[in-house]
Amino acid sequence: MDMMTHLTGWEFAALACAALLVGFSKTAVSGANTVSLAIFAAVLPARASTGVLLPVLIAGDVLAVLTYRRHAHWPTLWRLFPAVGAGVVVGTLFLLWADDGAVRISIGVILLAMSGVTVWRRRTAETGEPAEDTGSRAGRLKARSYGVLGGFTTMVANAGGPVMSMYLLSAGFRKLGFLGTSAFFFLIVNVSKLPFSVGLGLVDGDSLLLDAALVLFVVPGALLGKWAVHRIDQKLFERLVIAATVLGGLQLLLR
Fold first, then answer.
1. How far is 128 from 75, CA to CA, in rounded Å?
2. Is 76 exposed, middle or buried (0-12, 13-18, 19+ CB in 10 A)?
């Protein structure tokens, strides 16, 4: 089916707004693109929406890397990548048999659980409990756990952003380090997902034609995010990330 010709004007406008939000989330409030995920899934068939959204996300990742490349923390990235790769493979196998309902419920529960854990950890930190050393055995185990969950959720629904946001917040990343590390992380992960998505039939010539039109809206969103991020203080930034994660989890469970 030619998606471009079957979309109404209002449907395309909704996808364009979602693409603009992708750009904003990549350069300002990571995790907010769960709202974009909801819009794409509402306008397009569930599996098709995953394939269309992936190149839009990659475009946002490229802009985020260009903006925050000096702030990435590579030791954290190297700790995460092996576990994320395992999660992507598990997610690919899951997509071979799971229906839309199973995918939504699984990811919604994971996102809400990660939000709860992060809020709890931040409250205990405020009461004076020492921060966890990310290089310790417990820290490495946490990185692997979040990495597998992030790989799984990003493969099955492009919803890995909130999971990794929760990990980076729990690890104590400040705003720019958070954005720089997540920018490189998702550019590498999303590009590596392309062969899997093509093999599953999620990305094809039809979806790429729609992407070519939607990517134009990612750029102004990224510029808006770059302008806004320096006007958002650290506490508000963290609250917005957690709120976006909770919203994403709820919309997946209730849709």
1. 26
2. buried
Q: Which amino acid appears at position 121 of this protein?
A: R
Taking residue 2's Cβ as centre, other Cβ atoms within 10 Å add up to: 9
Q: What stretches of the chain show up as alpha helix (H) in DSSP?
A: 3-6, 9-27, 34-43, 46-68, 74-97, 100-126, 137-157, 160-170, 175-199, 205-214, 218-229, 234-254
At position 58, the amino acid (one-letter code) is: I
Question: DSSP letter string over 68-123?
Answer: HGGG--HHHHHHHHHHHHHHHHHHHHHHHH--HHHHHHHHHHHHHHHHHHHHHHHH
- pLDDT of amino acid 131: 45
Dihedral sign from CA coordinates of 140, 143, 148, 149: positive
Total Cβ atoms within 10 A of residue 58: 21
Which one, of 203, 204, 174, 171, lies nearest residue 190 by Cα?
203
pTM of the predicted structure, to 2 decimals = 0.78
Residue 60: the pLDDT is 94
First to last CA, the chain: 24
Q: What is the DSSP letter of 173?
A: -
Secondary structure of residue 217 in the 3-state scheme: helix
Residue 25: pLDDT band with limits 50, 70, 90: confident
Spatial distance between the Cα atoms of 220 and 68, rounded to a whole number of angstroms: 17
110 vs 24, more confident:
24
